[in-house]
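SAMPLE LOG
Freezer: B-3
Tube label: C17
Construct: single chain, 140 aa
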Amino acid sequence: MTETAEASIIVDADTDAVWRAITDPEIIARYLYGTRVESEWRVGSPIVYRGEWEGKPYEDHGTILEFVPGERLVSSYYSPLSGKPDVPESYQDVAYVLRQEDGGTRLTVTQSGCADRAEADRISSNWATTLEGLRSTVDA
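STRUCTURE (predicted):
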C-alpha cells in the first residue's frame, strides 16, 4: 500500500493568478528553485522539469493526466533522483487543486504513490515550503 503526501495554502489572489503560477514556466522557475518546466499543457502531453540540485543537473518528467484551467492539474511524475527505475510503477501522480476560499484561492497539492509514511511526510514538508514560495511570488 502506498501513501499520499499533501500540502495546502491560501493565496491572497484570484484563481487565475494562482493557475498562472502553476502553469507559466517563468513564474514556476521563481519559486521552484530555478526549475525550468516545459509542457504543452494539455492531456496526454509530456511535462519535463530541468534544473540543478546540490550541484547536479536533473531532468524529471511525466505526462499531463488532467487539465481543467483554473481548477485542476494532474500529472504523472518520475525523478531519476529517486533511485528507482524508469518504469510505470515508479511514477507518482501530482495533483494541484484550486478552490476560491476566504477571498483568495486555496491551492492543495497531493502526491500519491509514496513508498511509506516517512516518504509522504518528507514530500509533504517539501511541498509546504514550495507553496510558501509560490504564495510569496504571487503576492509580490
